[in-house]
Amino acid sequence: MNVVISGANRGIGLELVRQCLQRGDEVHAGVRAPERASELAALAQGAHGPLHLHALDVTDEASVRAFAAAIPGPVHLLINNAGVRSRPDDLAGLDSDDLTRTFQVNAVAALRMTLLLRPQLRAAGGAKVANLSSNLGSIADNSWGGAYGYRMSKAALNMATRSLGYDLKEDGILAFALSPGWVRTDMGGSEAPTAVDLSVSGLLSVLGRLGAEDTGGFFDFEGKRLPW
């Protein structure tokens, strides 16, 4: 299976690459600076599938176009994993430039990646797009406020995923918003309860089970449907 992963240099993205290679997938990994992604490059040693590293800035149209042009079809699975969280992200610390950048990375980029890789996804016949979202993007589940940029951008990503579920159906492409949970990564912090390998193995297992009846839906890494 040919898999494309953005934001692949650390955390969840790095573990996604590792586990996809381990199961024999051919992986195209997008990172801002491939020459500095030594930990990612090392995964190619002893892997069961081939790894290709590509320069990718998901906020730059030209960069995404060049990335997409370098990916041969078909693409069976696109994982839009690149994400940021500005700090501080509370009401008092809001910065409009940070908000705009957060939206670009967390929401707009997934649409741009999906659109520009659409021919390769279409060629796969039954391809899946996984947009890495968050429980913090759930409006119904917001019980303590704060995290403005992150919450707003992930809610926007969820809405985009819902629309993609309809708009890509005629191409045979399925789209899902997936929450990895609160994970022990640089972004999640050391107090997070979920190990990154457990989260990623869950995400990949859920992706394997989701079908056409689930397209446009929002799920966690255990397969539970989440409220919008």
Supply the key terms.
oxidoreductase activity, acting on the CH-OH group of donors, NAD or NADP as acceptor, seven-stranded parallel β-sheet, Rossmann fold, 228 residues, 15% strand, single chain, globular, NAD(P)-bd_dom_sf, alpha/beta
Radius of gyration: 16 Å
**Lateral arrangement of strands in the main beta sheet:** 3-2-1-4-5-6-7
CATH class: Alpha Beta
Q: Provide the CATH superfamily.
A: NAD(P)-binding Rossmann-like Domain
Distance between the termini: 31 Å
- Give the overall average pLDDT: 95
Envelope shape: globular
Total separate domains: 1
Alpha-beta classification: alpha/beta
Describe this structure in words.
The chain has 228 residues and is an alpha/beta fold. It has one domain: NAD(P)-binding Rossmann-like Domain (Rossmann fold), CATH 3.40.50. The chain contains seven helices and seven strands, in the order E-H-E-H-E-H-E-H-H-E-H-E-H-E. Strands 3-2-1-4-5-6-7 form a seven-stranded parallel beta sheet, sandwiched between helices. Strand 6, helix 7 and strand 7 form a beta-alpha-beta unit. The mean pLDDT is 95.
